[in-house]
Design brief:
By secondary structure, the protein is an alpha+beta fold. It is built from 2 helices and 9 strands. It starts with a strand and ends with a helix.
Length: 143
Amino acid sequence: MKEVAKYSGCFVCGDQNEHGLQAKFYYDGRRATTKVTAREMFEGYKNIYHGGIISTLLDEVMIKAILAQDIFAVTAEMTVRYHAPVPTGAELIFTGEVANTKGRVYHTTGQAVGADGTVYASAEGKYVRAKEALKEKLMASLD
C-alpha cells in the first residue's frame, strides 16, 4: 500500500498541525484507508467521539481514494449515516472508494468500522474534478 499525498497543515492528515487528527492515509489500488483512535479531546458528549469528526474523516478517506489516483477534486455533497455512537478510546478503521464516475463527478462510499467489526458510520459522497486553475492551487498545497 502506498501513502496518499498530504498537506502538512491539514486538520485531518497534516503531520505539522498540532491541533489536528494527524491521520495517515494509504491506498491499495482500490480503497483508501486510515486507522484512528477516538481521542477524548474530540468527544461530543462524555466518552462519545464527536460525530463531526467522524464525518470529517469519512470525507477525507473518500477524497483520498480519488487523490491517490492523481486526480484533484473537491467535495460537492456528502451524506453520512450514523449507526452507533463511538466510545472514546475505540480504534476505528475508515475506508473509502470510488463507486463510479460520470464526467467530472466521482461518486464514493465510505465506512467507519471498529476493531470488533462494528459499523459505526457509513457515507456516500460526490466529488467534482477540479478545473485547471483550482487544480494548480490544490497541487501547490501538497508536500
